[in-house]
């Protein structure tokens, strides 16, 4: 009968184990503890329970593995931040870093590698020659200040206008109108012909920026033309000596508006336009001395259309030869010779009452007191060295203090009193109204 209790206990233990199989691991753990306490015969069951516990331990290891993976991911992120192309810092493996990942035109591409090249026309911070100071589109030294290595070698003051120089792009280099910093400072109209000015290179500069008829235009360009009839200081042939409105030679003004050597006069080339034989102690010649002989005069005008040389031409009055013109006495076209009786030591004063004596084309001469016109009338004859008469005029009694003149001027119809056609008593070197021929 003693075996019965043992059997009951065994049955109870089996039931307990069977029930624990449907519960959680924690409950199994409790059962394991109880099983360990009860008997060694439960050893197999204990082993199973321990195996479950190991399984739980493996689950904890998986959790640790996940944690390690998270830690590794954080480490990778830190590495990208510390050494990335485009962060502006030159890191290992990078040839350049311009602070962005754009494939810009500064020579640093999106992969932080240098792709700039000297000679491509773009000044780049990174190129095959290093940092470029200039780039003119070629890798040669062609004299514009940017050399074959894309370095600036231009210098202001070397006489070459360079796009790249030590002062930047030059507007000029050397010459009038160019400053020490190779900047244009010249101005048209300042009276100086400048190589560099606000209108470019000046061909002329007459002191104003207007077209005033002297051949220099408002932009300091030459607009004068030889043959237009106006004697211009600036023309296509330079400063003109004459301009007769044509380009024919042999008429005193040649095809480049230069005066031709004077030709000897022939009959009809000269006209006696005014004569004064009774100055009545008036200072007609403006030499500061009133003299009844010296202040007599003959006004002769060149109407030939040619330059004349009066050398050897003789003046005769009713008495005979009075004066011979010296060699080289040249009279321009429409020029005037005023032959006075004589002139004082101080010469003719054209700044006072005789302005015409200083006009271009007017040639006052002193005859050494030999005009000697009779107050009661005289004959005036000009002839060449061969005694060919050029003109001869008979004049009546001279008015007291008043000259004889043609009216209108140069008209061959005869002579009248000067004061009958003008407010002036005489006008040596000028028309009756005081204006120029």
Give start-end ranges of low-pLDDT stretches.
1-82
Tell me the structural class: alpha+beta
User: For the report, how would you describe the main beta sheet?
Assistant: 6 strands, mixed
Oligomer: single chain
What is the CA–CA distance across the termini?
180 Å
* Shape field: rod-shaped
Q: Care to count the β-strands?
A: 12
Helix content: 10-25%
Concise summary:
The protein has 437 residues and is an alpha+beta fold.
List the helices and strands and how they pair.
Blueprint (H helix, E strand, L loop, with lengths): L2 H18 L4 H14 L4 H40 L187 E7 L20 E6 L5 E2 L4 E3 L4 E4 L5 E2 L4 E5 L21 E5 L11 E6 L5 E7 L8 E3 L8 E3 L20
Parallel strand pairs: 7-8
Antiparallel strand pairs: 1-2, 1-11, 2-7, 3-6, 4-5, 4-9, 9-10, 11-12
């Amino acid at each position: 009968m003693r075996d019965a209790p043992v059997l009951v206990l065994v049955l109870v233990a089996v039931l307990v184990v069977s029930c624990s199989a449907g519960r959680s691991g924690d409950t199994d753990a409790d059962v394991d503890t109880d099983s360990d306490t009860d008997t060694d015969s439960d050893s197999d069951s204990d082993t199973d329970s321990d195996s479950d516990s190991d399984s739980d331990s493996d689950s904890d290891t998986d959790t640790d593995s996940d944690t390690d993976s998270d830690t590794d991911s954080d480490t990778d992120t830190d590495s990208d931040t510390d050494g990335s192309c485009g962060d502006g810092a030159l890191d290992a493996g990078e040839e350049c870093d311009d602070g962005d990942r754009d494939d810009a035109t500064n020579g640093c591409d999106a992969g932080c590698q240098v792709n700039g090249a000297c000679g491509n026309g773009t000044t780049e911070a990174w190129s095959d020659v290093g940092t470029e100071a200039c780039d003119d589109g070629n890798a040669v030294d062609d004299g514009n200040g940017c050399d074959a290595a894309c370095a600036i070698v231009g210098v202001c003051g070397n006489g070459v206008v360079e796009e790249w120089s030590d002062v930047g792009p030059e507007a000029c280099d050397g010459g009038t109108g160019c400053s020490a910093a190779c900047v244009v400072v010249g101005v048209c109209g300042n009276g100086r012909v400048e190589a560099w000015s606000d209108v470019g290179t000046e061909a002329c500069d007459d002191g104003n920026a207007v077209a005033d008829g002297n051949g220099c235009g408002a932009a300091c360009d030459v607009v004068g033309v030889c043959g237009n009839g106006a004697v211009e200081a600036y023309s296509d042939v330079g400063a003109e000596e004459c301009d007769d409105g044509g380009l024919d030679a042999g008429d005193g003004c040649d095809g480049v508006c230069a005066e031709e050597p004077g030709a000897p006069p022939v009959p009809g080339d000269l006209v006696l336009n005014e004569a004064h034989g009774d100055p009545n102690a008036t200072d007609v010649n403006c030499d500061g001395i009133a003299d009844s002989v010296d202040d007599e005069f003959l006004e002769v005008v060149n109407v030939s259309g040619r330059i004349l040389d009066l050398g050897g031409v003789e003046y005769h009055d009713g008495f005979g030869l009075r004066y011979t013109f010296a060699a080289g006495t040249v009279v321009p076209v429409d020029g005037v010779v005023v032959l006075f009786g004589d002139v004082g030591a101080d010469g003719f004063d054209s700044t006072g009452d005789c302005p015409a004596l200083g006009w271009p084309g007017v040639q006052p001469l002193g005859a050494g007191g030999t005009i000697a016109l009779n107050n009661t009338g005289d004959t005036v004859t000009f002839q060449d060295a061969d005694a060919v008469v050029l003109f001869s005029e008979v004049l009546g009694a001279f008015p007291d203090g008043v000259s004889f003149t043609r009216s209108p001027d140069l008209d061959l119809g005869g002579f009248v009193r000067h004061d009958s056609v003008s407010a002036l008593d005489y006008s040596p070197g000028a028309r009756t109204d005081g204006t120029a021929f």
